[in-house]
Write a structure and sequence with these properties.
Radius of gyration: 21 Å
Number of strands: 9
Distance between the termini: 24 Å
Strand content: 5-15%
Helix content: 40-55%
Order of helices and strands: EHHEHEHEHHEHEHEHHEEHHHHHHH
Length: about 400
């Protein structure tokens, strides 16, 4: 296993801005079941930064956390003035330096990225991802600004600056996040990223739809979309292969027990994201908070709660139990080890919470079947793959960052 898979790690999403310069119609954050963004100031105050850094320092000490991954998010995080961003990164580096390894990342729409931002990313070793939804016509329709104008040109301009800085080894390599859309041709979307934007590292995000969603499209459309993605992806294998994380992580896990154990770790911790609002409110992954007001507590903050107390809370323990208790349909599935029932938010239904299989179960089955077919073409791979899939996951959610876990 790689070093980052050893011991406890913590993923933190910090909301630098509770506002955005775009008005994406599908945005889960501003269309969710709570009003936390409205209760917070537009931009994170320095006192929240200081309090969060101290909160994380104490948590790292008490729980032996070796790595903290701090994801700077929003809204749009680059709405924070650059001087304040510089000061914020310095505070986190200084507060945590002697207690844990800090990794800083940012997810941005890229529209405001300029040379000064690049200098700041280089200074603080920030890994940056850009959100782009596909070719210009698609992206402009899906990600307009507040005046209804498309944002593609500005997003790509920011992406180009980041790519150039990465080639100069000033910053870590930049990847792209794309919200999957079954109304499009999946292969054409990936082709655009690879051949027109020179993107070779990306991920496709399944929408945050649960069993109560009125927007979920048919699984036949989703399966067709991902088959098109896979067909194009297979064509790119060669001297400069494309890494689509949703696919690559499954292939690697089916080929190697070492990678399978690494994926066990990731799947066991897929709920393990602590979200801190600009006001200092604490919560789980904001995809989870968006499901139900029951997952939102505005009286729990970085100022009145320790990390260990938060992990012992009923909300967190519900997520731990849900990860470790697969739905009946999943327990006997051939792909359980590499799928682990999909994302929690896709299993949600009011009243029963996460007891049912993912709304994308058929699509996930199709993706895993396709990845297994690819792996099986390698000499001797079938026996290895069969052994991996027959082995129970080596990590459970209760094993990590869980002060109330029982034997």
């Amino acid at each position: 296993m790689t070093e980052l898979f050893r011991g406890n790690r913590l993923d933190v999403v910090l909301k630098l801005a509770e506002r955005c310069n775009l008005a994406c119609p599908y945005c889960y954050y501003f269309e969710q079941e709570n009003n936390i963004s409205e209760l917070s100031r537009a931009l994170i105050p320095e006192q929240t930064v200081i309090d969060t850094a101290r909160f994380l320092r104490q948590g790292a000490q008490e729980m032996g956390i070796k790595n903290i991954f701090l994801g700077l998010h929003g809204g749009e995080p680059t709405l924070l003035p650059k001087k304040r961003f510089d000061r914020m990164c310095t505070i986190f580096r200084e507060e945590l330096a002697d207690y844990t390894q800090l990794h800083i990342g940012m997810q941005t729409n890229g529209t405001l990225v300029d040379a000064e931002w690049i200098d700041l990313f280089a200074k603080h070793n920030v890994m940056v991802g850009v959100s782009i939804d596909g070719p210009k016509d698609v992206h402009d329709r899906q990600r307009p600004d507040r005046r209804g104008r498309g944002s593609y040109d500005n997003s790509v301009r920011g992406l180009r600056l980041l790519q150039q800085a990465a080639k100069e080894r000033r910053i870590p390599a930049t990847g792209v996040l794309c919200v999957a859309n079954p109304d499009l041709h999946g292969g054409d979307v990936i082709r655009h990223f690879v051949e027109e934007l020179d993107v070779h590292s990306l991920n496709l995000l399944l929408p945050r739809e649960g069993h109560n969603s009125t927007y979920l499209q048919s699984q036949d459309k989703w399966i067709r979309y991902f088959n098109e993605v896979i067909d194009y992806w297979l064509q790119t294998r060669g001297s400069n292969p494309v890494r689509i994380y949703l696919l690559t992580e499954i292939v690697l896990a089916l080929m190697s027990e070492e990678y399978a154990e690494g994926l066990d770790y990731q799947r066991a911790n897929r709920h393990g994201i602590v979200t801190v609002s600009a006001e200092g409110f604490l919560g789980p992954d904001d995809n989870i908070m968006a499901l139900d007001k029951a997952f939102c507590l505005t009286d729990v903050t970085v100022r009145n709660t320790t990390l260990a107390q938060f992990f012992g809370s009923p909300i967190w323990q519900t997520l731990v139990k849900s990860i470790d208790t697969p739905p009946t349909k999943c327990a006997s599935c051939d792909w359980y080890r590499t799928c682990r029932s999909g994302d929690l938010f896709n299993r949600y239904a009011p009243g029963t919470h996460f007891d049912q299989a993912s709304v994308f179960c058929e699509t996930l089955d199709s993706i895993h079947t396709a990845m297994a077919s690819i792996v099986s073409q390698r000499e001797g791979a079938l026996e290895t793959m069969a052994g991996i899939l027959a082995t129970a996951p080596r990590h459970a959610a209760r094993d990590f960052l869980n002060p109330v876990a029982t034997a």
